[in-house]
Amino acid sequence: MTDSPSESLLSVRGLTKHYPVTEGPLRREVGRIRAVDGVDFEVERGETLGLVGESGCGKSTVATTLMGLEDPTAGRITFDGVGVADRDDADRREFRRRAGMVFQDPTSSFDPRMTVGESVAEPLAIHGLDDADRRREIVADLLERVGLSADDADRYPHEFSGGQKQRAALARSLVLNPDLLVADEPVSALDVSVQAGVLSLLDDLQREFDLAVLLISHDMAVVREICDRVAVMYLGEIVEVGPTESVLADPQHPYTRALTASVPRPDPDQRGSGVRLSGDVPSPADPPSGCRFHTRCPEVIPPEGYDFEQDDWRAVMDLRTALAADDFDTEGVRRSASAVRERFGLPEELPDSDAEAVVSEAIDSLTADDREAARRLLAEEFETVCETDPPDLRATEVGHPAACHLHDSAAAESPRAESDD
Ligand SMILES: Nc1ncnc2c1ncn2[C@@H]1O[C@H](COP(=O)(O)OP(=O)(O)OP(=O)(O)O)[C@@H](O)[C@H]1O
After folding, report:
1. Where is the composition biased (Basic and acidic residues) (predicted)?
2. What ipTM was reported for this prediction?
3. For a designed S-S bond to 252, which of 338, 376, 396, 413 qualifies (C-beta 3.0 to 4.6 A apart)?
């Protein structure tokens, strides 16, 4: 059943994976970890798409659901025009032949009791190539193509370094001549000194085998090396996607700006040094309302009717986030207004007297131990679109899409955040 002959090799629509949180002997569902929450993307034939984001944002879960290692909660995955869920057993087998995977830890790809040659040849035997001599030939050829030698086929995994093992894992993933390779953090477990070599090997193999590659990484510098396009993920959602060059040169989402800030760029004037993300990644069991990044965003949009410096506004939002989570009285800051201001980086007095009046009243409530009154006052007075409305992923002025209210027409009229990018 082909949906359309001109479709992308891989198309993912509304992909969602929630893990239930259960309690008690009856394993009653009390919540859900929203590991992946409605993700759309395509991988075209012969292209390398990078999926990038901090640890825990759902990248590996995208990989395991699209490879069929886990069932998605919702969404449609189409490979070469056929829905993966619509496949019968024979079709699934064919899908497994045409889509290979390499993992972060190359050791997991090998049975320590088998020679590397036997491991690399295993998929061939499973898929019906009975001729052992032919299998050996194919393995020898592949080992050479990944920079090992044909003789390495007779060695055992423990005799290989990490980099060599990952090269052999690449050989194994390519032995059935797939069209798609999903590489989940393929270099992050390797010594820095060998990472570049394995990455450039992956790049060469992609061209040589005309592979489509989905490269998963937390590291924008890795993605920049070999990806044609990049999709940026935050807490289960894609927040920006576009050609790598365009996303890196002109990131349209504050999260992407923060991720790219640490990547050295050829033009020092463009270096986004000093972008600071406040707080930790929130739990995907209870993601923030509106834009999920608003609790950490250095460019969160100030409320209408007040005149905030961006850093002061971020400080107020940090105070609000802490009040909502009730996690900040450890250092006794409740006892003094100046301790609260110092803790959150608030000035002694905000330039806008109206904003200052609200903040001091809230801090007074807090120091009088009425945390709830402080939380409510700040939430009522300082509501931002970033916390109320989830932004859609849509085209920006530079072309590629991003999901951020800074690109809404109304928001675009308000003063742009004075971040350091
Ligand atoms: N089997 C599972 N059961 C419950 N929660 C899970 C399961 N697998 C992943 N998660 C949770 O889902 C979220 C996304 O995890 P995932 O591994 O996909 O993220 P990631 O971006 O690949 O991060 P990392 O690089 O650290 O693996 C995390 O909060 C993780 O704890």
Report:
1. 405-421
2. 0.97
3. 396
Per-residue pLDDT at 387: 96
Ligand 1: which residue has its CA nearest to atom 16?
58
Residue 51 phi, psi (nearest 5): -115, 115
Calpha distance 47→59 (Å, rounded):
18
Q: Kindly report the protein residue whose alpha carbon is nearest to atom 3 of ligand 1.
A: 19
Whether pLDDT at 201 is above 50: yes
CA 144 to CA 186: how far, in whole Å? Answer: 19
Say if CB 335 and CB 362 are below 8 A apart.
Answer: no
AA identity, residue 39: V
Q: DSSP letter string over 45-84?
A: TT-EEEEE--TTSSHHHHHHHHTTSS--SEEEEEETTEEG
Q: Side by side, which strands form the sheet with 229-234?
A: 99-102, 180-184, 212-217, 48-52, 229-234, 237-243, 401-402, 394-395
CA of 58 to the centre of ligand 1 (A): 6
Position of tokens 């295993």? 122
Listed in sequence order, the DSSP H helices in 180-330 are: 192-208, 220-226, 244-249, 254-261, 310-325
Q: Where are the domains of the chain?
A: 10-227, 310-383
Distance 159 CA to ligand 1 centre (A): 31
Residue given tokens 């090998």 in the structure block:
110
Torsion of CA 376, 381, 387, 392, to 10 degrees: 150
The CATH architecture to which 10-227 belongs is 3-Layer(aba) Sandwich (3.40)
Ligand 1 binding site (Cβ under 6 Å of any ligand atom): 19, 33, 35, 53, 55-61, 218, 284
pLDDT digits (tens, 9 = 90+) for 38-97: 999 999 999 999 999 998 999 999 999 999 889 999 999 999 988 888 778 888 888 889
| Mean pLDDT score across all residues of the chain | 89
How far CA 276 is from CA of 236, 279, 317, in Å, comes to 21, 10, 14
Q: Counting atoms of ligand 1 from 1, which one is nearest the CA of 218?
A: 25
Mean pLDDT of 258-279: 64
